[in-house]
Write a structure and sequence with these properties.
It contains twelve helices and no strands. By secondary structure, it is mainly alpha-helical.
């Protein structure tokens, strides 16, 4: 059964994103400090990609939708779910047809639409590159925009196909961080907290946008870390916030020299 739209959210997220698009800026995703996949999760990612490449869509659908259902039943954590969907960061251009075939086989699959959106967003990030906007060609930016539009259409569809589309909110934040839209970023954070008040992954993704170099401030980061602690995040999770705050302090000291 399709998830019923929630009042206040289902104006199309794709429409909100289009309305909020800003001039692309520096790539501001924080990745070096992200919680890494465990060896078991790395092996699982390889298995997932193998199923996709071999067009074993029934097994792939069973695995990925099963993980989503396990998260919704609180049998696995939001971190585990995110790490499993990292399999779709692979930017092999040959995979495009496999994603489309997966969706054709399971047209109401939350996992399939989310996975293809993650793939397109990864292609967009790759096209954009990591240089400053002044060092990035119009061709790169146009290619990024094309892939992000495809990603956002798939994310928008995915939101209607799960009770708790937490990784969709995380993924939309990733697109926003490439192309701007602070209001939509905040909406994704708020929606994530609504469906999972103690979630770590969307909070931490949003936290990266609060760095001074991306328009935030150290005070905003400290306030956000305090709120995350009050929400009941674990000490292990809070260490990631503390590590990013330490990185921020070092960066600010360097800028002050």
């Amino acid at each position: 059964m399709l998830r019923q739209p929630k009042m206040g959210l289902r104006v199309s997220i794709f429409a909100l994103w289009c309305a909020a698009i800003l001039t692309p800026g520096p790539v501001n995703a924080q990745t070096s400090n992200d919680p890494p996949n465990s060896p078991e999760e790395v092996a699982s990612n390889r298995e997932t990609l193998s199923l996709l490449r071999q067009k074993r869509f029934e097994a792939l659908e069973s695995k990925m939708s099963g993980l989503q259902h396990s998260y919704e039943a609180r049998a696995i954590s939001d971190e585990r779910l995110l790490h499993e969907f990292r399999a779709f960061y692979d930017t092999d251009p040959k995979l495009d047809a496999q994603y489309t075939a997966w969706i054709a086989a399971f047209p109401d699959s939350y996992a399939a639409y989310l996975a293809r959106g993650i793939y397109y967003r990864s292609l967009g990030s790759e096209a954009r590159g990591e240089r400053f906007i002044s060092e990035t060609s119009k061709q790169q930016l146009d290619l990024m925009a094309m892939y992000l539009e495809k990603a956002m259409r798939d994310y928008d569809k995915s939101l209607m196909l799960a009770e708790k589309p937490l990784i969709s909110y995380h993924a939309i934040l990733g697109a926003v961080m490439l192309n701007g839209g602070d209001g939509l970023a905040r909406t994704m954070l708020d929606e994530s907290v609504r469906i999972d008040p103690t979630n770590f992954v969307v909070r931490y993704k949003y936290f990266a946008t609060l760095q001074t170099r991306w328009g935030g401030s150290l005070k905003q980061m400290l306030d956000f870390e305090r709120d995350a602690r009050a929400a009941g995040l674990s000490e292990v999770q809070l260490k990631y916030f503390a590590n990013m705050i330490a990185i921020e302090r070092a960066w600010l000291q360097k800028q002050a020299r």
